[in-house]
Specification:
There is one protein chain. This protein is mainly α and 237 residues long. The chain has helices spanning 54-74, 80-90, 92-96, 99-102, 107-117, 127-134, 139-155, 187-190, 193-196, 198-203, 206-209, 217-225; strands at 9-11, 28-29, 32-33, 35-37, 39-42, 45-48. The strands form three sheets. The chain has a two-stranded parallel sheet. Strands 2-3 form a two-stranded antiparallel sheet. A hairpin with a 2-residue loop joins strand 5 and strand 6 (45-48). Helix 7 runs antiparallel to helix 12. The relative contact order is 0.09.
């Protein structure tokens, strides 16, 4: 396969800002000097040199708001069910693509993403009450559920990826599939998927986690998650 040299870039991952570019080596492919960038889009997700996804979240929120605005502009009807289904079909995918990779931990971004969904709410109700009336969950809870579903798929080998977790050797309380939470020195590691999901996963009971009995078990796990109270892991609710 021929490499497209002009489309190859260099992204240095570091917490320290480079004072002088001469401190770092340059790279080339077939004599073509590669440009060094501070951020890059990989499979639709924008990541910077500090492993932060701030730019990505700004971009998807802007796209989702534009899409939601177009829906309200193009639809004369203000039927709640119609607008909710349209929002879930055409707007929410912008905000939920690859969330296990970039899920935010700062309140600012959590509320900023949630604000897009407020367009489907009612003025006489607060946000959580409007979500309940519309029969939908907060985007923050949906991200957590998607994290847990991915953890389930990884744990039971449904995803063909080596298990990136460390299992507890002895379990005296909770579910029998508990994971070990590692200590971290940076936010990038602390809030990385394999570490941030541990507490929520360990809080689940065996009746939720041990459902790997048939090909439909993922759907069973997803349905059981709907009955679990995850509020202590959420800011919005």
């Amino acid at each position: 396969m021929k490499i497209a040299n002009e489309r190859c870039l260099v992204l240095r991952i570091s917490n320290h800002r480079c004072i002088s570019s001469c401190l770092h080596p340059t790279y080339s492919i077939n004599g073509h000097l590669l440009n060094t960038v501070s951020e890059v889009r990989d499979l639709g997700v924008i990541v910077d040199s500090s492993l932060k996804f701030d730019k990505h979240m700004f971009v998807i929120v802007r796209k989702a708001q534009q899409q939601a605005g177009l829906i309200l502009k193009c639809f004369c009807s203000r039927d709640r069910d119609l607008l909710t289904k349209t929002f879930c079909t055409y707007v929410r995918p912008f905000l939920e693509y690859s969330t296990p990779v970039w899920s935010p931990h700062y309140q600012y971004f959590i509320f900023k993403i949630e604000d897009v969904q407020r367009l489907t709410g009612m003025n006489n109700l607060n946000y959580l009450e409007s979500l309940k009336a519309l029969g939908i969950s907060s985007l923050e809870r949906r991200r957590l559920e998607r994290d847990l579903i991915l953890c389930y798929n990884l744990f039971y080998g449904i995803c063909e990826i080596l298990l990136p977790f460390k299992l507890c050797v002895s379990v005296t309380r909770g579910n029998s599939c508990k994971l070990v939470k590692t200590s971290c020195n940076t936010n990038a590691a602390k809030y990385f998927y394999t570490n941030r999901i541990v507490l929520a996963w360990n809080s689940l009971s065996d009746t939720v986690t041990v459902v790997f009995v048939s090909a439909s078990s993922v759907n069973v796990f997803r349905k059981q998650l709907n009955t679990v109270n995850l509020e202590k892991f959420l800011i919005v609710g």
